[in-house]
Amino acid sequence: MADSSLSAPSQSLSGSHTPAGPPGTKEPLDLPEHFEDVIEDLHVLRLPMVTRFRGITEREVALFSGPAGWAEFSPFTEYGTEEASRWLHAALECAGLLPGDRAGQPSASAAADAEPRTVAVNATLPACPPDEVEPVLARYGHVGTVKAKVAEHGLDSLDEDIERLREFRRLFPRTDLRLDANAGYSLDDGLRVCERFADFDLQYFEQPVPGVEDMARLREELVGRDLPIVLAADESIRKAEDPLRVAALGAAEVIIVKVQPLGGIAAARAVIDACGLPAVVSSALESSVGLAAGARLAAQLPRTVRSRALLGENPACGLGTVRLFATDVVADTAGMRPVDGAVPVTRIVPDPDRLQSLAVDPGRYDWWAQRLQQCWSRLRSGGRAD
Ligand SMILES: [Mg+2]
After folding, report:
1. Domain for residue 314, yes or no?
2. Could you confirm whether 149 is annotated as catalytic?
3. Which stretches within 81-157 are classed as H helix?
4. pLDDT band at 51 (very low <50, low <70, confident <90, very high)
5. Where does the chain show beta strands of DSSP type E?
6. Same domain membership, residue 305 and residue 236
7. pLDDT tens profile 288-333
8. Eight-class DSSP state of 282
9. C-alpha to C-alpha distance for 95 and 82, rounded to whole angstroms
10. In angstroms, what is the span from residue 134 Cα to ligand 1's centroid?
């Protein structure tokens, strides 16, 4: 893969002599053998969720601090070491703990001073009966962008999805509307539903079908039929190489990016620059500590002509997910809870009482400490040995 083209922008961003990204390449990091020599305050928390999401009702996150502030390491528990080590790379960057790294310091560049103080986030409209559309969205206050989930039961949900979207458009004729199918359609069905959804003036349609190849085929068909639907790739992007592949195959016009899976803010910026597609920052179901890193990335994204044309002047991010948790690591007013469609660009310091009250039991703590060490060793070896 194109390591040199990816790592160069990261270096200039961080001012580091150690290549900052993307991790998962063979570049070992100059780290001591044990993470405890660097990370002195590892906390592992269990956050209860309001409803089941992504198959889970509780989210476990590890938090620690460094010279630049607090960081979150929260790869989903089923992820293996290779994948999870990218999330650790992101957390080390966030805490300012990468060897030779100065990127995490708040005023590392003059550009940081010009960054906006908030970034817009979308509201989410889940599968619900049409008469619930208004009350569900009323909870978000004033928002400029709504993402409607579709395809809960694939094609079987289509009539209900259409009914809900009709009601949405009746209520909000001018609000930007995105759809997200979470790869819920086959290629044939994806094409069929696009013909129906084309009436709703969509900003974009997120991952109607699984896989980069099928996304590319679908897009080709849409262009051939002159159907004005912009495709965005989400599930197709899990690591730094993926956006480049999406761009190379013409599989989408917009990419959804998440800080932790891509290995950090510098690595994400490098990959966005390299792939050249407008990007929308989204959450990996993080606590406010992790979401804040997403907001900082969003605030730094280039506003290109293409991005303005597709996403408008103030593109909404998918960073309003803290409302999925029953409890966050800080009080609601101090965290990343959206207010009128925006979240702050800031750093979050977890509440010490919550670090205690939400802590996992010692067995779970040990599991996370062991996992962190495995990822640490992998970053240290550059993936040559675990
Ligand atoms: Mg999505």
Report:
1. yes
2. yes
3. 81-95, 110-114, 133-138
4. confident
5. 43-53, 56-66, 69-73, 118-120, 123-125, 145-149, 176-180, 202-206, 231-233, 254-257, 279-281, 342-344
6. yes
7. 999 999 999 999 998 899 999 999 988 999 999 998 899 999 998 8
8. B
9. 21
10. 22
> In this structure, what token pair is assigned to residue 288?
């406010």
Q: pLDDT digit string (tens) for 126-162?
A: 999 999 999 999 988 899 999 999 999 999 999 999 9
Residue 7 clears pLDDT 50, i.e. is over it:
no
* Catalytic residue selected from 26, 147, 149, 239: 149
Cα 287 to its chain centre, rounded Å, is 12
Shared-domain flag, residues 159 and 292: yes
Instruction: Output the CA 206–ligand 1 centroid distance in Å.
Output: 6
CATH of the domain at 338: 3.20.20.120
- Give the Å distance between the CA of 224 and the centre of ligand 1: 25
Specify whether 236 is located in the same domain as 87.
no
Residue 152 belongs to some domain of the structure? yes
Whether residue 371 is found in the same domain as residue 231: no
Share of the chain above pLDDT 90, in %: 81
Whether residue 251 is found in the same domain as residue 137: yes
Cα 182 to ligand 1 centre (Å) = 5
Domain that holds residue 147: 110-344
Look up tokens 């660097």; give the residue: 38
Check whether residue 172 and residue 245 sit in a common domain.
Answer: yes
The helix (run of H) or strand (run of E) holding residue 18 is: none
Between CA 28 and CA 37, with CA 34 as vertex, the angle to 5 degrees is: 110
Q: What is the reported pLDDT for 16?
A: 34
* Mean pLDDT computed over every residue of the chain: 89
* 254 Cα to the center of ligand 1, angstroms: 12
Identify whether 21 is part of a domain: yes
Active-site entry in 26, 147, 239, 258: 258
Q: Is the pTM of this model over 0.85?
A: yes
pLDDT band at 238 (very low <50, low <70, confident <90, very high): confident
**pLDDT for the residue numbered 385:** 55
Question: Measured in angstroms, how far is the CA atom of residue 127 from the centroid of ligand 1?
Answer: 14
Q: How far is the CA of 15 from the centre of ligand 1 (A)?
A: 33
Centre of ligand 1 to C-alpha 233, Å, is 8
Are residues 310 and 355 located together in one domain of the fold? no
Does any domain span residue 386?
A: no
Q: How many domains does the chain have?
A: 2
Is 61 in the same domain as 205? no
